[in-house]
Every structure is written in C-alpha cells, then in structure tokens.
Amino acid sequence: MPEKKSFLLRIDAEKFEALEKWAADEFRSVNGQLEWLIHKALLDAKRLQKTNKKQDE
C-alpha cells in the first residue's frame, strides 16, 4: 500500500455537510470520499495511470 500523506483542508460548512451526506450515502467516511473523488478526477484528467480496476470503481 502506498504511503499516505496528511494535509489540512479548509472547506466551508455548506460544502462539508453536502460531502458528509454523500459519503454516508455511499458508506464511506468523509476522508474516504475525498480520496475517491480525487482519485477519480486524476484518472479522468489522465494525470494518474489505472493500477487496480476494483479500486477505480
């Protein structure tokens, strides 16, 4: 498993609440949802190579 980096993210309350609900709807934590969103965006922008098909779903 690749090393994980920590960083601080500032987000307004309205966006955080929407993200929190979306994450709960998909049985993920907010952190997990953000990781998934970033991963998907990087793949879509062709900035990251596919490594594991199951992880991309």
Detailed description of the structure:
Helix content is 56%, strand content 0%. With 57 residues, it is mainly α. It has a domain at 13-49. Helix 1 (13-25) crosses helix 2. The longest helix is centred in the middle third of the chain and has 15 residues, at 30-44.
Secondary structure layout:
Elements: H1 13-25, H2 30-44, H3 53-56
Helix pairs in contact: 1-2
Task: Please outline what is shown here.
With 57 residues, the protein is an all-alpha fold. The chain is 56% helix and 0% strand.
Rg, rounded, reads: 13 Å
Strand content: under 5%
- Compute the number of helices: 3
Structure summary, number of beta strands = 0
Q: Average pLDDT, to the nearest integer?
A: 90
In which range does the helix fraction lie?
55-70%
* Alpha carbon gap, first and last residue: 18 Å
* Major beta sheet summary: none
N-to-C SSE string, H for helix and E for strand: HHH
Give the CA-based shape. globular
Secondary-structure-derived class: mainly alpha
Oligomer type: single chain
Looking at this protein, list some descriptive labels:
single chain, 57 residues, 3 helices
